[in-house]
Structures are given as C-alpha cells and as structure tokens.
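Subject — a protein and its fold
Fields — amino acid sequence, structure tokens
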Amino acid sequence: MRAGLQGTAVDVAEEEVVEPCDECGFVYDLAAASRAGQDIRAAADELAALLTSSVDPPSRRTSPQLWSPLEYACHVRDVLLTQRERVLLARRVQVPVAVPMGRDERVAHEGYAEQNPVEVAEELTMAARLLANALDRLDIADWELRVAYNWPEHTERTLRWLAAHTLHDVRHHLLDVRRQLPAAP
C-alpha cells in the first residue's frame, strides 16, 4: 500500500506495476494519477508548440522506420480521444473491453502526413483538455474502475493505470519528436 489520492491508501495490484520505460525513463506512478490530467495537458501543449514552431516540414520523416513529427502529433491526439472514451465507458459499463485503436493503420487511413499542422496542434490541445476534464472529474472510487486492456498483455487495468499509461504515451512521443528536431546551435 502507498499513500494516494487525498491521503487515501492505494492498493497497487501486481498486474498494475509496470517497469520504468527503458527508452524514455518514464516511471508509472499510480499514486499520482490525480495529477495526470494536468501533466497530459502540459505535455500536449509542448508537443503542439513544437509542431507549429520548430519543425520544418513537420510531415518529413527523418528515417523510414520513424513517424514524422506531424504523424506523432496526430497519433497522440487520437490516443487522447480514445483514452477519454475508455474513461467515460468505464464509468458506465462494468469492465468494458478497450478495443484496439489501430494505431499503425490510422497513419494511412487518417492521412496523418497530409493533415494541417496548425489544425492538428489545435486538435491535440483540445483532445488533452477533454481527457483532462474526464480525469479531473473522477472521484476516489472511480480511479479503481477497471477496463479490459490489451497492452502489454490482455488484463484488467484500473483507470489509475490508464491515466499513467496515457501520460507515458504523450511524454514518450514528445521525446520521439524532440529527437527529430535539428540540434540547437
């Protein structure tokens, strides 16, 4: 048990523990889930700013195996919208199944590389705001609601984990975009 939201004890089930990300160093802190909304907004705002000011052209891939900054921003926008729907569904349905979002297929199906970077930045900011609002409205019991999640393996996850996982996704892809920016002189 750890101290958690508003001084309550947080039981962290064994299946909820995720090792730190080897690539970006993110640590899943489930006791900090109540701050995830504001942290997601801040990271999404930073990604939106990079997309519209630092990347020229934002649709150019620096390597065939990497998405472009624009494609990463579109992906993050869609992740935020998908996760918001999962949070809202978990509040209405007991242990709903998180249907895979088709992350790789969306790049072509949605035409990520052809989207307007300014519009994507605005949509990314809005998606972060919408998810943050849904997370901010959860009460102590809601954080323990579960979703049948398919990553890294099929298991039930709490909304606490979903919030931390989403924050990880945003920060990780922010790092992916930063790595593609030209080095500052």
